[in-house]
Amino acid sequence: MKLNRTKIFLTIFTIFLFLFIWYLIAWVTPSKVIPGPIQVFQALVKITFEGDNFNYTVFDHLLASLWRVLIGFYIALIVAIPLGVIMGVSKKAEWMISPLLDLFRPIPPFAWIPFALVFFGLGLFSQAFIIFIGAFFPLLTNTFEGVKNTSSIHVDVAKTLGADKFDIILHIILPSTLPYILVGVRVSLGVGWMCVIAAELVGLNKPLGLGYLIQYSAQFGNFALTFAAMLVTGLIGYALNNSIKIIENYTSHWRESIVRN
Predict the structure, then answer these.
(1) What sign results for the dihedral spanned by CA atoms 159, 165, 170, 176?
(2) How far apart are CA 102 and CA 121, in angstroms?
(3) pTM, whole model, 2 decimals?
(4) According to the model, what pLDDT value does residue 124 have?
(5) Are 181 and 143 in contact, with CB atoms under 8 Å apart?
(6) Which of 37, 69, 148, 201 is the most buried (most CB within 10 A)?
(7) Are the C-beta atoms of residues 130 and 203 closer than 8 Å to each other?
(8) Crossing angle between the packed helical segments 223-250 and 210-219, to the nearest 10 degrees
(9) What does the domain layout of the chain look like in residue ranges?
């Protein structure tokens, strides 16, 4: 209980300290360059209730960005998890696929933007592709590691009892891999959220999205709105990360079981 109170106090103290430092920096800097917290809040209220020059509110921009992230992320999910399981249970698959992954993994997702624009053009497909690239590798790596760390004792017992490979994967490997997959999901969502902001800076065919809002407001010198859009971006990223953490806590007994065995 005391630890919780200390944590809450330190969190609130840090937020107020950040706002105070921000206010001081804005006070000694021209307001057009670095707006203060009050100006940013006013800009956020204005776009929430009045909208921008195209009559889009911050919720319209937010939903557009979330939709793009979810599409790219779910494509990564349905490709990376099965592939990670296959690599984990089959040495031949691991030997075949690992060299390609080691080749492409170091390439930043943003480096694929020109390729995406050439092959998919402006719009949803190019943005989803960039998000897919960013989300794919953390999901695949964590799934693979989860499969490799599955208790060999449980697998051997299942084989002794007559379980086939499909049953072993479904009832032993996947449950024990779930904590690792959730870590991959959390990391992938964070990377995907960063990728959508970058993708929206170059690949939009419609003036919607937080990335577009950041770029558009900065181009016209409305830095209060730029900071407001950045603040919303950070808050949503924080919410996504902590939502997955809550789910991770609910599945912690699987992780403890893995450690014990």
Answers:
(1) positive
(2) 28
(3) 0.86
(4) 87
(5) yes
(6) 69
(7) yes
(8) 160
(9) 40-260
d(CA 21, CA 19): 6
Q: Are 32 and 43 in contact (CB under 8 A)?
A: no
**Among 148, 141, 151, 150, which residue's Cα sits nearest to residue 183?**
141
Q: What is the number of other CB atoms lying within 10 angstroms of the CB of residue 37?
A: 15
Q: With contact defined as beta carbons under 8 Å apart, do 120 and 131 qualify?
A: no
Q: What is the pLDDT of residue 165?
A: 83
As a whole number of angstroms, the distance between CA 227 and CA 254 comes to: 41
Q: Which two tokens stand for residue 209?
A: 């999205």
| Nearest C-alpha neighbor of 232 from the set 30, 1, 41 | 41
The number of residues making up the chain comes to 261
Task: Give per-residue pLDDT as tens, 5-52.
Answer: 888 888 899 999 999 999 999 888 876 778 999 999 999 999 999 988
Q: What is the DSSP string of 104-158?
A: HTTS-GGGGHHHHHHHH-SSHHHHHHHHHHHHHHHHHHHHHHHHHTS-HHHHHHH
CATH number attached to the domain at 40-260: 1.10.3720.10
Radius of gyration over every alpha carbon of the chain, rounded to an integer in angstroms: 22
Is residue 229 within 8 Å of residue 98, measured between CB atoms? Answer: no
d(CA 184, CA 140): 8
Looking at beta carbons, which pairs linking 4-7 to residues 24 or more positions away fall under 8 Å?
none
